[in-house]
Design a protein that fits this description.
The protein is of the alpha+beta class. It has a domain of 214 residues: 3-Layer(bba) Sandwich (FAD/NAD(P)-binding domain), CATH 3.50.50. It is built from 12 helices and 22 strands. α1 packs parallel to α12 and α5 packs across α9. It comes from Oceaniradius stylonematis.
Amino acid sequence: MVGVSTAIALARRGADVVLIDRRAPGRETSFGNAGVIQREGVHPYLFPRSLSKLIAYALNRRTEAHYHLSSLPAVAPFLWRYFRASNPGSARRTYEANIPLFGGCLDAHADLAAEAGAEELIAKKGWLRVFRSDAALRAVAGELAELEGLGLSVSTPDAAALAALEPHLKTDRLAGAVHYEDPWTCSDPGALTGAYARLFERLGGETVERNVAGLGRDGDGWRVETDHGPVAAGAAVLAAGPWSKALLEPLGLNLPMGIKRGYHRHYAPAGNGYLTRTIVDDEHGFVMAPMARGVRVTSGAEFARHDAPPTPVQLDRAMPHARALFDLDEAVDDEAWMGARPVFPDMLPVMGEAPGLPGLWLNFGHGHQGFTLGPVAGRLVAAMMTGQSPDFDPVPYRAGRFS
């Protein structure tokens, strides 16, 4: 989503753009998310500091987080930086930097979806966050107040209102819910990304499917090395998501990016049941999202090497809790899908020119929010690349903040 959106923004500004991807656009990380265009998502996902939770995480007993013991030497440096950055001061800076980013996400998607002819993939009903205790519901009161202060619509429906919103949701074990009313949801994130990619081609852009082996200087410009020969250009944008760090390091730029792996699987609703909104269960670390293929159940975060074998144990742990909320039949996928989210310790992306590497631009590390922020991020980077004034201050997202 980030790469395609950046390509569109550049093409609209008159640039000659080639989009290089190892697969058709929208078949990697942007394929497997929960499909929420998360207008309210200004609060960062922080590393927990509760001792009881940390002990449970260390024992690998939680559904929302899992790690590979064999990968700990590789992922521990990022986890330590992530833990250190999850303090009130850093969280507040991330929150403030997120406000202008998320503020334009709906308009930016609306613009692309309309021109791409993909509006039927988007629903505008918000999403529901469910709680099993009054204490958990009270704990988000401050967050909800901040969202209302930003002009967003949130409500806490009572049992009757919740039943009206989602008649087939089993609410007998719930203490309550929050309805985030502004966000949009997508019934097929991969298809929406693909529709945007076709729009890019109609704008005169070229898409090529090649494996990228590296980046290098080419006179005053840049050269992308691929398995079918090089592609040269005056400037390059690195928007390779979880693969971005490995492509940067040979150029001498080592950024503290980590990876949160995640899984999903689709299930048929039982009987005549249906969901019309995405349901998020924080306590048990999963999401249920109505999709074209069925109800998509997504897992929490897994910390492991990017190339480690899949271990979808979080989905197995989540399924009894998911079925306690909504009647699900058998899986319609043969196996769970796995993807990887690129994240930085402060939960902000890197967007802007690479330090010490003129002509190489960075646009990655959007964590859980790449699907939401792709069109906004593309506009921001394209404006900077073409010498135009961006819509908001890009300083908080510079790679130099990690110097």
